[in-house]
Amino acid sequence: MPKRISLTRYLVEQQRMEGHIPSQLRLLLEVVARACKRISQAVNKGALGDVMGSAESENVQGEMQKKLDIIANEVLIEANEWGGHLAAMASEEMEGIYVVPNRYPQGEYLLMFDPLDGSSNIDVNVSIGTIFSVLVKPEGAGVSEQDFLQPGTHQVAAGYCVFGPQTTLVLTVGDGVAVFTLDREQGSFILTDEHLRIPEDSKEFAINMSNQRHWAAPVTRYIDECLQGTDGPRGKDFNMRWVGSMVADVHRILTRGGVFMYPWDKREPEKAGKLRLMYEANPMSWLIEQAGGASTNGKHRIMDITPTKLHERVSVFMGSKNEVERVTRYHSEA
Ligand code: P6P
Predict the structure, then answer these.
(1) Ligand 1 center–CA 262 separation, angstroms
(2) Which fold would CATH assign to domain 7-194?
(3) Residue of the CA atom closest to atom 4 of ligand 1
(4) Which of 92, 132, 146, 282 is most exposed, with minimal Cβ within 10 Å?
């Protein structure tokens, strides 16, 4: 029977041996993990709980909110606001930042999250997830939205929890990628994999093909070559997967390789892309890079981008290093 290492033990040993995790960050990560367990319980209720369907409201992105979007957001806020480890939080579901109320002590960390990514999949029982990213608040009194506008390279922790056949927490603090599977009998996350490595090459791409007529030329070139298979310049056949839930697609890529793309397209040319930089692209990019992959916006490394606004959107190409480098090169050649 392999030694069962809980998330708590992993974080304590990382703190003791690697010095990666100050105690306040360890507390933060344990609180986020506990919140993910509660979200998982709500998700798993499905039609048996009052959690399905629309909340009859829109979020700051102008998207219809599902009841579980709001439940997950509230769980994360309530779990994190009292612990003294955070100065403020930001969420896809909230327009402005959430400053820790004065009745609680303030800490040095900033927590951003997409509380329930892929929520269009909730009502059809397809994997969804919570994505989170942690920054350190810059020195100085008080906290403002400006304090969040740091490049992805400043993250001190990032991860997601995918609510699928298993509930799995995937985390990095800059020392590789660790995977924890929820043991429901014990109610603890148990270490089931670490130091994930993404193969540098792949034969699998993930993109929403229904947008094909709207893509820019480099994306069309890359996908056309994949579709030509062994008869084309790539000399190999490709497979396609598109879950419609970034957490599920990125988890597959971290597990077996591939490339995930949500590019800019002509439908809304003023938007850089659909996905959000601060709480979707940056945390996923760090995980992908920590596992030996690459992540760009077609031109630049995503984690080098300095955000100008909290809900900034970005074009995303992430996964197997050689595939991301190829589609990025096609952009520079265009
Ligand atoms: P589309 C979910 O809404 C999300 O933000 C990502 O999780 C997912 O990859 C993408 O949008 C799906 O977008 O346009 O294919 O429905």
Answers:
(1) 8
(2) Fructose-1,6-Bisphosphatase; Chain A, domain 1 (3.30.540)
(3) 118
(4) 146
Q: The tokens 């029977």 sit on which residue?
A: 1
**What distance in angstroms lies between residue 235's CA and the mean position of ligand 1's atoms?**
30
Q: Which of 219, 206, 245 is nearest to 124 (CA)?
A: 245
pLDDT at 2: 64
CA distance 278 to 88: 14
Q: Which residues pair with 170 in a beta bridge?
A: 160, 179
The topology under which CATH files domain 204-333 is D-Maltodextrin-Binding Protein; domain 2 (3.40.190)
Which DSSP string do the residues of 194-207 spell out, in sequence order?
ES----SS-SEEE-
Hey, which of 65, 262, 271, 275 would you mutate to test ligand 1's pocket, going by the most ligand atoms within 8 Å of its Cβ? 262
- Residue type, position 40, single letter: S
User: What is the structure's pLDDT at 102?
Assistant: 96
Ligand 1: which atom is nearest the Cα of residue 210?
15
Could you state, in order of their start, the residue ranges of all structural domains in the chain?
Answer: 7-194, 204-333
pTM attached to this predicted model: 0.97
Common-topology check for domains 7-194 and 204-333:
no
pLDDT tens by residue, 17-39: 877 789 999 999 999 999 999 99
Segments of the chain scoring below 70 in pLDDT: 1-2
